[in-house]
Amino acid sequence: xxxxxxxxxxxxxxxxxxxxxxxxxxxxxxxxxxxxxxxxxxxxxxxxxxxxxxxxxxxxxxxxxxxxxxxxxxxxxxxxxxxxxxxxxxxxxxxxxxxxxxxxxxxxxxxxxxxxxxxxxxxxxxxxxxxxxxxxxxxxxxxxxxxxxxxxxxxxxxxxxxxxxxxxxxxxxxxxxxxxxxxxxxxxxxxxxxxxxxxxxxxxxxxxxxxxxxxxxxxxxxxxxxxxxxxxxxxxxxxxxxxxxxxxxxxxxxxxxxxxxxxxxxxxxxxxxxxxxxx
Amino acid sequence: xxxxxxxxxxxxxxxxxxxxxxxxxxxxxxxxxxxxxxxxxxxxxxxxxxxxxxxxxxxxxxxxxxxxxxxxxxxxxxxxxxxxxxxxxxxxxxxxxxxxxxxxxxxxxxxxxxxxxxxxxxxxxxxxxxxxxxxxxxxxxxxxxxxxxxxxxxxxxx
Lengths: 279, 158
Description:
The complex is a heterodimer of chains A (279) and B (158).
Chain A: E1 3-10, H1 14-24, E2 29-33, E3 36-42, H2 48-59, E4 64-71, H3 78-81, E5 87-89, E6 93-96, E7 108-111, H4 124-134, E8 142-146, H5 152-159, E9 164-169, H6 172-184, E10 190-194, E11 206-212, H7 215-227, E12 229-241, H8 245-254, E13 258-264, E14 269-275
Parallel strand pairs in A: 6-7, 8-9, 8-11, 9-10, 11-12
Antiparallel strand pairs in A: 1-3, 1-4, 2-3, 5-6, 12-14, 13-14
Helix pairs in contact in A: 4-5, 7-8
Chain B: H1 2-10, E1 15-24, H2 34-39, H3 45-55, E2 63-71, E3 76-80, H4 85-93, E4 109-110, H5 112-122, H6 131-144, E5 148-149
Helix pairs in contact in B: 4-5, 5-6
């Protein structure tokens, strides 16, 4: 998405006040400059007239100047992506980029060429999800991958024999990247779409639901995950710390799911496993 | 060999640069300014965003100063500071979010108890030796924002 960078020249106590006001008005992040600060907002949300009027109100109290520019959308993560190291998960999974040589000593090999999307196996949450997928029976199952990122978990599900995979993400970079990675791994028949779980078209229930997102989103969407799970379906949740287990587990229990197990890894990142028990 | 590993582990990593930003809690994404600031240093931006967001789930939507240390091996560490006083005052006023047009005239009021809570939150990052001086600073910021501080300052009653 294109962004607008608004450069504001200002000194003294009004700087933090204006930052707070702009934060309230949809600006996402701020950067100090020698003469004030820069504020960043998605270009579609930028309303020049509103901000001119607002800044001028402060001109009564302090000297203030501004300019703005539009920043084109691009892959800012390219520098890291062109030189990362391959990574293994247990002795079962080897994840590499197209520019790394193949390693056939692992039963499962995933080729991931990330493009500003999350999920290369380097992060503990991804490796915990992959490791826990190995202990599930995916053969012939229907799998939903919530917040697919690079598509890595969907690709793993295919390699583990899933019959049908549905993968979504809110981010357009992720959708493009998932499709590229599916092709690199010769995976076909995955439904990839952009949106949230609330946008999902009615479908048959799933046997496995995977969601590596974050605490707040998992809690907010828990009832929806439970609603699309078939009897006996399994749910793997990650993207949060051990200290948040209780909150996430509470939400899952309230959604009628049954606790199966927990596994924490480096920096106390955690995966929680729940299932929809037959009553 | 174990000796070598040990010394390797304890050796201080070489700092490449510091990146200072203010980012909304639970809302870091690879767009500017995070993307260009970290991406150009070869840092994995996606990993920073995942960590920042996980650590700030309790402060979703609140503007938080963050100082990121980038090392020459492209790894990073970061420290999240307390939000600036105006952010905390707005939080106290519950005028958070929703308004597409910022407007200085949405005046409200806070109590001295609220000022004290904010001052105590901010103490670690302020150059103040006493809570009272921190409270005076916060109250001054509130007035500059058009926020009234209700009643007398606690030290005026003595």
